[in-house]
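User: Structure tokens for this complex, please. No commentary.
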Amino acid sequence: MKNSTSNMELNRKGRTGLNVHRTISYIMLVLLCFLCLFFFYILIINATRTNNEIQKGISLLPGSHFMANLKSVLNNSTIPILSGLKNSLIISVCAAVLSTYFSALTAYGIYAYNFKYKNLAYALILLIMMMPTQVSAMGFLRLISSMGMKDTLWPLFLPNIAAPIVFFFIKQYMEANLRLEIVEAARIDGSKEFHTFNTIVLPILKPALAVQAIFTFVCSWNNYFLPALILDSNTNKTMPILIAELRSADYLKFNMAAIYMTIAIAIVPVIIVYFFLSKYIVGGVTTGSVKG
Amino acid sequence: MLKAVKAAPALRQHRTISYARWGYIFIAPFFAAFVLFSLIPLCSTIYYSFFEYYRSGLKVIGPNFVGIDNYKAVFGSDLLKYLWNTVLIWIMGFIPQLAISMLLAAWFTDLRLRLHGKGFFKVVIYMPNLIMASALAMLFFALFADNGPINSTLISMGVISEPYQFFTSVASTRWLIAMMNFLMWVGNTMILIMAGIMGIDSGLFEAARIDGCKSGQMFRRITLPLIRPILIYVLITSMIGGLQMFDVPKVLTNNTGSPNRSTTTILMYLNNHLFSKNYGMAGAVSVILFLLCAVLCIGVFLVLTRPNDGLTRQERRLLKKAEKGECKL
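Assistant:
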């Protein structure tokens, strides 16, 4: 009897302890979420207000100048935002397509075939996987100048044919999800190797390809270092370059509302797409990483 | 994969078709692009780092071979200061990032805690990772400017009487950059660590609980040793990412690294040389960066290819000895 009451007490103690623990974790999580959302909320609110309203301080309610701000940004000839969006889109889409297709091709080559230097090739890719492209930027700039590709969009997506990180993620996915018996069966049915890859292997890899395409797209969309060195003419510039120019231009001459609007145009499309695909993106972060 | 490698010779005896050449064909585009766009540029970067090669006005000087003069000049300038800036700002962001993401990962995976809305929290906390870094920096610059909304709100709340100049103090500028890095990477780290914790056999936790193990003990004795590979992976990849810190300080300080170049990172320094077409000096900085990254890349390689059993090297050696019968465990 005595024993059971003390047990109950212990249980209650444990439960209150758990409740306190739970409350602390919720407070912490809400704070962090607030930090993550607050700046973007202010950004979107300020993009809808007038310059004068913005100078007065933070408001939690949107203003009524969304369309006016949008028009003034689109009509501003010093910051060609439409061509910036177009260039960013071309580069990002091409980079996503090239990197996923050729990485899948490479991963399949190493996974499905046996050849002498297979393990060497695999080890080499792993070794260079995390090497930043910036270390060879100087040679890259000289190379593309001599190839006549300076100030064009080509050098910003062609190198994505060799994307070691995408390769690694797809290879991991392949090992877990692609059985070579299927390939054997296709071979017996007379399917050629490339045909097998395009019609049988690629559909099986679709989930991994989609996730990696999204990551490559976002990465190219946000890339600033190389495009800023390669693209000179105003009509070829991408969004990050235009944003940076906003900073270096005489800042006071600008309408603050227009600045917020420009930042919003660069950020918001990605956020909207992210919230629609968040399940796959968050799930995709871990598909190829080390296992604990 | 191992099975396939072993089965290969047997296969070859039975049929005459060898598919080996298809392997080469399939990996050819990758390696061609790699050689053309990465390897050749890297070699020429290293090569020209030993040359005097720059543009003065419209005239191109060099390339003249000067040995290691570029390296001497680079080390003679403020390279070490910029490296220190980069490392310091990285640490300022990374330590809270690791601590908080470990805490959150432990909470999310705690079966007794049963938190609600995990999916929502994960989605929101991961979001800043996808934001354009230069746009985020521009946003922070606008918000924290002398007459920006943060200052005017603080004044109207009576916290301060006149605008606090965030960008004239070394500490506040560095903390703002560190905070942006923190916001951008905390979700990513959390998800990686969570995946690591969820990969642990739940039987281990149950057995420990039956033995009377407390939550804290379990985290220290079971979770931490088993997610060590993930932690090392996160640490090294974050270091490589930290060395590439560029967009945020560049846009936030308008490439000046102000105040007094205390936020100039090593990549901003490289960018300045590339922009002024001083190829020799840019080459020398690139080679130094390359060497630093190469050491870290070897670290990543070792983490990814090591045996995956949660043991330390010493324990593994002991186990091997025990298997041979040389000693008892």
